[in-house]
Amino acid sequence: MSAFKKTLLQTSKFAKLCCVEPGKELRQIFHKGPAPAKIAFDHLPKCGGSSLNHFLESNFLWRQTFSTCGSFPRTSIEKFHSLSEQQRQSYRLIKGHLVNQLFGLISDDFLKITILRDPVDRIVSHYFYVKRRPTHYLYPRIEKEAISLEEFVSLGLSDELSNWYTLHFSGWSETAASENPKGAVDAAFSSVVNTYNVVGFLDRYDRFVECLQSIANLVVPNSGGKKNVTSGRVSVKQLEAKTRDVIQEHNEMDTELYRRLRSIDGFENDGLLRPSMLSSSHLS
Q1: Are the beta carbons of 44 and 99 closer than 8 angstroms?
Q2: Is the pTM of this model over 0.90?
Q3: Which of 164, 80, 156 is closest to 119 using CA atoms?
Q4: Residue 205 phi, psi (nearest 5)
Q5: What does DSSP say about strands 111-116 and 39-42: parallel, antiparallel, or unpaired?
């Protein structure tokens, strides 16, 4: 990139005109190759989504991006439903929590992606994340009542803390899933395998991004590092056996779903799903 272009990108007025964030290295503005593939990122809580969002945002213009609100994603889902067909089609990057609820409203040429982590590790991360964020809706109660990690899971404070993967991907209610856990896991597994084009695991994050960058023709490199990493937390190995058992008890379906996904050929080595089955239409 020329010195002139680099200087131009630092100019806030020019950046605003291009609907991009001032100060960012935005090679896509001057990139002469094929445009990035359209991407719909289904962001699961505490699964590396903030890091991936930062990477994806750097590859798409603001005006091409629709993001669900982190605190009130359902409001954003309703907003997207209210948009005209022309407005919906103007987006090339759709990202955020509950984005899977928008899959029926977007064109087939979107790459549908998501990333998961070990269910027990996700809950531990979630707990310590809430404890260091006074603005989180669960923070006041956790601090006021000095809620422990075990209680955090067992008190039913949020639907995100008990078999969230299974309920999210299957679309089943908590009641229906509890009555037929095997059926719920089967439905969730089928949804992941048949709906999503690229799926990654957090412990293979770099490999996931590398593959996504190649498949989707993302020209801006992943140079921002990991974002929103929970600090001051204990590892799964440091958990007391009782605490670990309580978390697993409330996430048995997710544990089974996660095990089955990681058992798919190629998953353990690559942390990816179905990249070889992608249609060339995704890159058009």
Answers
A1: no
A2: no
A3: 164
A4: -60, -45
A5: parallel
